[in-house]
């Protein structure tokens, strides 16, 4: 009888732990980044098990923008610097994804450097065994290129504003077939309409940021974050490639903004970095229910792994990695340490 009681107690403790009420759910530091990676943002898990990370270094531009990668055992390895835009001299790597060709497709956001006049681009870093072998310019003329997702025969890129002066502000997603990348770069100041697949609006005077995080589930549904509306959108495509439905899967429910996202390839759950709320959330794609996995106060510094303006998540094994971009303003100071945080996946 006594041993039965002990077993029941143990079982109860295990259930509480699995439900997230027990210890061990708080974030910790996955990697302490050097000053040369002072503004971590976009992440993607490579087929080699490394997490590839964009470091545009907006916070301290005395360090060149670069891509680094985090090995399965937590070692940070340099991939390389990105060359500056020929007119602005700057590079602003944000979202990135691997194409079926094994090369890295990277959004170059020039707006974060103050160049709002169609200077942002889509780049392709030709990769060989984890090393770069040159950078190609594929698309020019974005205002605020942000997230990148390769799916099927195309690469998709979020444009966080289609018109910075409009209110409410339009934003959307562009699609480019890989087969289009031949010869000269595609110029969106001439070829926007034929590449824009979805467009929506953001009505928030405090956060004029629209389309942001981007990803696909196993069924081919496209998920997009509308940052300023703190919402997650889902689009379905017909057989002809045209969008046939547009749904708001979740809005608010504790989310104060929706920045980077990743879709779990097996469960379909959508994990979202909440920049404004200093939080990470999980959205059930069937019910739209939001579960906040972690949240802490603004201006935590990022000490001990606390979130410090998280802009992106990445899933690897049983862990959620979080990039703390730590941009200053609205209650946050840019401060050391510069970190990726990690949370248990649940
Ligand atoms: Ca901070
Ligand atoms: Ca910090």
SSE layout and pairing:
Layout: H1 2-19, E1 28-33, E2 43-45, E3 51-55, E4 66-70, E5 76-81, E6 93-98, E7 104-108, E8 120-128, E9 131-142, E10 145-151, E11 154-159, E12 169-177, E13 186-187, H2 188-191, E14 196-202, E15 211-216, E16 222-226, E17 231-237, E18 243-251, E19 261-263, E20 270-274, E21 279-283, E22 290-295, E23 310-316, E24 319-324, E25 338-344
Parallel strand pairs: 9-13
Antiparallel strand pairs: 1-25, 2-3, 3-4, 4-5, 6-7, 7-8, 8-9, 10-11, 11-12, 12-14, 15-16, 16-17, 17-18, 19-20, 20-21, 21-22, 23-24, 24-25
Poorly predicted runs? 1-22
- Spatial order of the strands forming the largest sheet: 6-7-8-9-13
> What structural class should be given to the helix and strand makeup?
mainly beta
DSSP summary, beta strand count: 25
Task: Encode the helix/strand succession as letters.
Answer: HEEEEEEEEEEEEEHEEEEEEEEEEEE
What is the helical fraction, as a range of percent? under 10%
| Spatial extent as radius of gyration | 20 Å
Largest sheet: 5 strands, mixed
Give the rounded overall mean pLDDT. Answer: 94
Portion in strands: 35-45%
Overall 3D shape:
globular
Bound molecules: calcium ion
Distance between the termini: 34 Å
- DSSP summary: helix tally: 2
């Amino acid at each position: 009888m006594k041993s039965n009681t002990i077993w029941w107690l143990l079982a109860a403790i295990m259930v509480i732990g699995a439900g997230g009420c027990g210890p061990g759910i708080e974030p910790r530091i996955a990697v302490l980044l050097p000053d040369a990676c002072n503004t971590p943002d976009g992440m993607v898990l490579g087929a080699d098990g490394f997490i590839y990370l964009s470091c545009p270094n907006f916070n301290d531009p005395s360090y060149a923008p670069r891509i680094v990668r985090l090995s399965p055992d937590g070692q940070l390895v340099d991939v390389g610097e990105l060359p500056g835009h020929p007119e602005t001299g700057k590079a602003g790597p944000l979202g990135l994804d691997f194409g079926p060709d094994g090369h890295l497709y990277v959004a170059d956001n020039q707006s974060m450097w103050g160049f709002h006049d169609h200077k942002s681009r889509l780049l392709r870093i030709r990769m060989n065994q984890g090393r770069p072998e040159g950078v190609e310019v594929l698309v020019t003329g974005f205002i605020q290129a942000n997230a990148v997702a390769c799916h099927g025969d195309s690469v998709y890129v979020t444009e966080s504003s289609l018109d910075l002066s409009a209110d409410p502000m339009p934003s959307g997603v562009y699609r480019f077939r890989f087969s289009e990348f031949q010869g000269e770069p595609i110029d969106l100041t001439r070829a926007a309409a034929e590449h824009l697949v979805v467009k929506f609006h953001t009505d928030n005077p405090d956060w004029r940021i629209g389309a942001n995080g981007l990803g696909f589930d196993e069924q081919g549904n496209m998920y997009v974050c509308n940052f300023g509306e703190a919402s997650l959108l889902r689009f379905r495509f017909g057989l002809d490639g045209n969008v046939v439905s547009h749904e708001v899967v979740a809005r608010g429910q504790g989310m104060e903004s929706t920045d980077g996202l990743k879709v779990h390839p097996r469960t379909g759950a959508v994990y979202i970095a909440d920049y404004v709320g200093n939080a990470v959330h999980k959205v059930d794609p069937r019910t739209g229910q939001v579960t906040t996995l972690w949240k802490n106060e603004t201006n935590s510094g990022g000490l001990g792994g606390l979130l410090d303006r998280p802009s992106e998540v990445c899933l690897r094994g049983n862990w959620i990695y979080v990039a703390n971009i730590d941009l200053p303003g609205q209650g946050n100071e840019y401060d050391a340490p510069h970190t990726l945080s990690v949370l248990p996946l649940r």
